[in-house]
Recover the amino acids of this structure.
């Protein structure tokens, strides 16, 4: 089979076409070692670009005087981005073993991006907490004093399996990666955002306000400066445009 040159075309700016082909191929990509290798190169490049975007957003928000904090009444300071630890690749392998198939984009994020928590308060945008700030926590490295995130994922998986055995309409399992938009602003809300599993495709489905491919969700978030939901504030357009300036499309 002729090489689809996915990475070369992705780097040349034909990203939409590449993602379309990868999604159309479904899980069949994994059955061919050469295709799987090319697909992983694209996913890794996507993750490197996403990490650069996260680092730029953290730098810009910090310069604006943004306070990164917990989504509760205490609003304790938090580290907004924790890089992958030395065991991130091992953790990615565990995810794939524990849940069967995990999308390649999710595994690349785990290995190369790390955990992201942009919840907080902007001094010039009083409704920023309502903007659904980006949160993706796959390794749990932001919580070194807490039980490993694997325990949490295991509990969610086992609870879903028990529920699905009793209720045939229980729906698909969603691996929780983030609070929903209401919980992010310390308001009682719905279930967490996450990734539908198992899924052997290159790019998975992100279940949030709506369900869409993970990379589409990330592109939407970055195009809005890390805050994809409009809040109606007078200053947010100016702030979000400055935050999103020159961020890399994935």
């Amino acid at each position: 089979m002729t090489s689809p040159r996915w990475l070369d075309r992705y780097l040349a700016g034909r990203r939409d076409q590449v993602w379309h082909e990868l999604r159309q191929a479904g899980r069949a990509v994994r059955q061919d070692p050469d295709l799987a290798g090319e697909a992983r190169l694209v996913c890794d490049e996507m993750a490197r670009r996403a990490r650069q975007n996260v680092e730029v957003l953290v730098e810009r928000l910090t310069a604006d005087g943004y306070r990164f904090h917990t989504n509760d009444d205490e609003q304790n300071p938090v580290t907004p981005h924790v890089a992958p630890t030395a065991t991130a690749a091992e953790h990615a392998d565990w995810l794939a073993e524990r849940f069967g198939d995990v999308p390649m984009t999710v595994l690349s994020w785990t290995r190369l991006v790390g955990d992201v928590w942009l919840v907080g308060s902007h001094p010039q945008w009083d409704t920023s907490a309502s903007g659904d700030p980006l949160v993706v926590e796959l390794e749990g490295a932001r919580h070194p004093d807490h039980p490993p995130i694997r325990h949490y994922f295991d509990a969610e998986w086992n609870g879903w399996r028990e529920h699905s055995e009793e209720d045939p309409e229980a729906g698909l399992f969603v691996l929780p990666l983030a609070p929903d938009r209401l919980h992010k602003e310390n308001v009682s809300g719905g279930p967490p955002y996450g990734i539908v599993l198992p899924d052997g495709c290159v790019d998975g489905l992100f279940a949030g306000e709506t369900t869409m491919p993970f990379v589409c969700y990330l592109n939407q978030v970055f195009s809005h400066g890390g805050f994809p939901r409009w809040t109606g504030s007078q200053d947010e357009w100016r702030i979000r445009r400055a935050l999103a300036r020159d961020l890399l499309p994935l």
Observations:
- The two ends are 27 Å apart (CA to CA).
- The first helix runs from residue 6 to 11.
